[in-house]
Each structure stands twice: as structure tokens, then as C-alpha cells.
Amino acid sequence: MKQETLDEFRERVSQDNFAHLLGIEMDEVRKGYARASLLIENRFRNFSGYIHGGVIFSLADQAFAAASNSRGILSLGIEVSTSFISSARVGERLTAVARQVHSGRRISVYRIEVKSTSGRLVAICRGTVYQKTRKEIPSQ
Amino acid sequence: MKQETLDEFRERVSQDNFAHLLGIEMDEVRKGYARASLLIENRFRNFSGYIHGGVIFSLADQAFAAASNSRGILSLGIEVSTSFISSARVGERLTAVARQVHSGRRISVYRIEVKSTSGRLVAICRGTVYQKTRKEIPSQ
Amino acid sequence: MKQETLDEFRERVSQDNFAHLLGIEMDEVRKGYARASLLIENRFRNFSGYIHGGVIFSLADQAFAAASNSRGILSLGIEVSTSFISSARVGERLTAVARQVHSGRRISVYRIEVKSTSGRLVAICRGTVYQKTRKEIPSQ
Amino acid sequence: MKQETLDEFRERVSQDNFAHLLGIEMDEVRKGYARASLLIENRFRNFSGYIHGGVIFSLADQAFAAASNSRGILSLGIEVSTSFISSARVGERLTAVARQVHSGRRISVYRIEVKSTSGRLVAICRGTVYQKTRKEIPSQ
């Protein structure tokens, strides 16, 4: 089977069903790195009036999944720990940046930061993936 | 201000905007305990075809938030660590159960398990909340 | 090479250098389960007078490592998240129990609880291991 | 009661019982920052021959506790998640650096990295503290 290029991978990521449902946009994908953003809407509130933790996590997870799969190696998230630092506000745009911290043969680790446009830290995650195969996406 | 009863709290939780968007149902809320469920749909897939981690997390977080706020004390999730154990499948119903593990004056800890109807473990979380106030919901 | 039996494994675990330094005792090892205990001493205090988090973690990690390696499959701890619930006290004996929550081909997950003799919860951990090989310890 | 200066705090940290038992040295303490180091010895091995996770964690926790208490506010570690990245080796010196990521009124978050002298990443932690009081250490 022909290997997927990084451009083809970006194209595929941009057609993510769930990201589309929330309105998450993939702003950048490079090997071991991804940046995604999301406009916080009223429909994302939970019963206390705060933005649902699941929304913040979904944005972070989208960047994490894109970054960790950007090498063409099927990477499954097995553990993610998240610190919720400040509340998100309706009307602001949040950006999640995922960066590879460690790249191993089977296990790799990523750090994800979610910030508001003004730079306020909203959440920090650390995510671990298990890599099923070792096929690498060729650089373009 | 009149205190909210557990029935009023259940009513409020059931009007959660984001849970409504995904289709999460609150099946049971007691003090320190909550159970929520969600039918896994095609629109929850991510770009790899797997169900998005954000969907699993959102379900778990909904049970966690309901359980931790069930005492009438505003409880903010500050840390959640999640182990993703097995993939969710389109068409199955997942249930998340959140139970209090430790109840402190300011800090409490919950365990959340997400399972399929057949009992397959999909994810396990541990969540920590910071409690802002000490008002208790009166028992019914 | 002859496979190690569970009895031989128990014998090897009991000769752990670091556990010996602290005084950790392995009370029970079965497949996917281990129990270890430690008498809390004055030399374990940190600069604030509390028992050092590293002592609590070491006890939990000892049970985790014994449980996860009890099948004869070399299992490396890759992620451990710990909730510190209550302080340990000099003179009390703490017991850590590690139980397998999920057993996968490459990734397995354990839950570890650290309690005082009186049943007070001191810490809870969740640990993830990566299994390098698939050799199983024969049952006795 | 007279407030403790940062110098007095450093002095107190350097008399930590458990750090002394392992040989952990506090190399630097500033507000919201601390650096500690430890020579890896044979007595730190576990039953598999690897350096015990409790040793790595103890070093990280020492830096975390020093950094988080460096403001003169009693800070209790409530959650620490740790990724074990590579094995430590007997004879090498490990350094743990703890940095404040978020400083809140009651809850603060730290990132801790443990590296070998050659720069190899051994472990990464994220730790959360609950701050009991609001007294600040005066700057010198």
C-alpha cells in the first residue's frame, strides 16, 4: 500500500467527524507537533454554567491525536492526565498546541497546552501513546 | 437564598447544554455518586475511524461533575487522569459511573469507570475537585 | 532458559535492594496482585515534618512492580498518577495493595491503594505498564 | 511569629531527613523554582535490576516540595502524575528541576523534569498543590 504523505494526513485530519461537530479547526500539523483551535460557544456550557471539561479535553485531544499520528505510525492514546487551570469563556477562541516530549519505539509522550487568545492558560495535559506500527510518513 | 434540593439539582443537571449536544443522559444522581450514559454514534469518530477520546472523556466528566456537585457544594474539577483501555464502537451504549473515593473539606477525589453494556472496560479516570463553598444540599 | 516459577519470583522480589533500604516487606504476591507494607519511621520525614511523598510512592510502586511482573512478563512502569489523600504518621504501618484492572497484550493497568492499619486511605495510584515479552510464569 | 526568609527556608530544606537518607542535594531554591540532584547508587536497584521508581519519584518530589513551599505558604502535594521515560543508571547523577506552571490562590501547578547529566530525559511529572495559608516569604 502506498504510504500517506504529510499533506494527505493533514487532509484526512481535517475531515474528522467529531472535530467538525464541535467546530475544532486544525491550524497546523507537523511531525510531532499539532495546533488546533475552537471558538467557545454557549452550547458548550455545563449545568453549572461553566464550559464543559469535555470540550476543553476534546480540543486538547484533537491536537494530541494529530501530533502523535503525524509520523504515519498508528498511535493510540493510552493515558492522558489533565490539569484544568482556568475556565474558558463563551466567545473566546482557544488554541491547543501538542508537542512531542519523548519519541520511543513503542511509547511516546506529548505535552499539550490549551490557551486563550490573550495567552491565559486554560489547561495542560500530558498524553502517552502506544505505537502499533513503525511505518513513517515520508517528509512530503 | 433557598438551598437547592437533590431533586432540583438533578433537574438542573438534566438541562446541561453540552450533554444535550452529545446526547448524554443522566441516569442516576445521588450524593457522591452519578451514572450517565451515551449512545455511540458515527458523528463521534475521529480521523482514524476510532471514537474520539473527547467523547469518552465528556461522558466520564459529566458523571464526575454530577457526582462531585451533588452535595450542593460548588466543586471545580482541577485534575483528571484517564486511562483509555479499549475502543468504543458505533451503535453501543456506554455508561460512566462516578464514585467518591475521598471527601475532604476542600479537596475530594472521585473514580470514574466507563463501560459498554456488555461490561467491557473502555476507560478509567480519577478526578480531583476543589470545593469552593461548604453549603450542603439537604437530603430531600 | 528455564522459566521462573511464582515462588522463585517471590524470592527474587524479597531481595529488592531499595525496598530493603526502606524496610518495605512483600506480604503477598499472586498473579496480577501484590501487597507490601512499611513501618513509617522518623527518618522518612521531609523538611516540613510530613512523611516524604517519595516514601509513600516507593511503597505503592513496590506493590505495583511486584503485581505487574508477577506473570513472568517483564513489565516496565511507564505512567503512574498518584493522589495523596492523607498524611502518614510516624509509628504506623502502611499497606499498599496493587490489583490488575486491565490486562492487555502490551499495555496493562493497575490500581494501587495505600492504607494505614486502621483503614485510613493515604494514597491512590493508577499505574500503566508496557510489557516487553509474553512469557508467562507457570502457575507453581 | 516571625516570618521565615528564603535563606532560612533553604536551610530548613537542606535538613530534610528523607532526602539525607537517599543523598538528595538541594542545589537551588528560588520562589516557584527548585533544583535537586542525586547520585544513583547500587542500593537503589529494584528486584529487576532497574533503579526503583520510588527513587526517581523521591528526587522529583523533593524539587516539587521545595519549589511549591518556597513562597512561605504551606503547600501540600495532592496529585502527581509521572511519566517514566528512560531508566536511570548506577553511577550517573540525576537532576530534578521543578518550575511553577500556574500560581493560584489555593491551587498551584508545577512541572518537574528529571534528567541525567548528559541531558537524557528520565522522567516528567506534573504536580498539584493545595495551599493552606497565604503568608508569603519576604524576598530576602
Could you say what the CATH architecture of chain A is?
A: Roll
How many angstroms does the end-to-end distance of chain A come to? 17 Å
Q: Which CATH first-tier class of chain A would you pick?
A: Alpha Beta
Supply Rg of chain A.
15 Å
Question: What is the count of β-strands of chain A?
Answer: 6
Largest interface: A-B, 41 and 42 residues
CATH H level, superfamily name of chain A: Hotdog Thioesterase
Alpha plus pi helix count of chain A: 3
In total, how many domains does the architecture of chain A comprise? 1
Oligomer: homotetramer
Structural class of the secondary elements of chain A? alpha+beta
Nearest-integer average pLDDT of chain A: 93
Could you describe the 3D structure shown?
- Four copies of one chain form a homotetramer.
- Chain A is α+β, with helices and mostly antiparallel strands.
- The first copy, chain A, has one domain: Hotdog Thioesterase (Thiol Ester Dehydrase, Chain A), CATH 3.10.129.10.
- In chain A, 22% of the residues lie in helices and 39% in strands.
- Chain A is built from three helices and six strands, in the order ααββαββββ.
- Chain A has a six-stranded antiparallel beta sheet with strand order 1-2-4-5-6-3.
- In chain A, a hairpin with a 4-residue loop joins strand 5 (107-116) and strand 6 (121-131).
- The longest helix of chain A has 17 residues, at 53-69.
- The two termini of chain A are 17 Å apart.
- The model of chain A has no long low-confidence stretch (mean pLDDT 93).
- Chains in contact: A-B, A-C, A-D, B-C, B-D, C-D.
- Chains A and D meet through strand 6 of A and strand 6 of D.
